[in-house]
Design brief:
Arc Repressor Mutant, subunit A, single chain, 2 domains, 155 residues, alpha+beta
Length: 155
Amino acid sequence: MPSTISILQSLKNKYPQFKFEPSDDFSWSASVSTIYYDEKSPDIDVFLLHELSHALLGHDHHDQDIQLVTMERQAWDHTVALAPAFGVAIPDNIVQSTLDSYRDWMHSRSACPKCDTTGVQTDKNTYKCLACNESWRVNIAKTCALRRYTTKKRS
């Protein structure tokens, strides 16, 4: 298996249209065509390929939470297909735990703060409960604590 340094250099050579920058986390920024990576991660090669997959698939934004989860699934599928070309094995437990974290995030955002029923997303950060008619907005909270704020007075 190639070392992470050679994988990173291979990615830089093969995909010169993208920048690769060390960071505290892994992410893809379409606005600056940059893949950010955590040099200290034991799974750096897996997540570098995952973020590259987002870049190659043209993922740049989402308006609904389900779109983000769909993009994550697409990126992991692409990562699995791309990995053999770089001599990287993609452990299924990493794929599934990462996808589970997004599904858990989406479920937490959609849980009604009044009755805990799953609500429907009405715009990027707003939800409505079909059971009790409560409305709430949420923060982004992918890497920080989720906050839900009701948006109407209760009667």
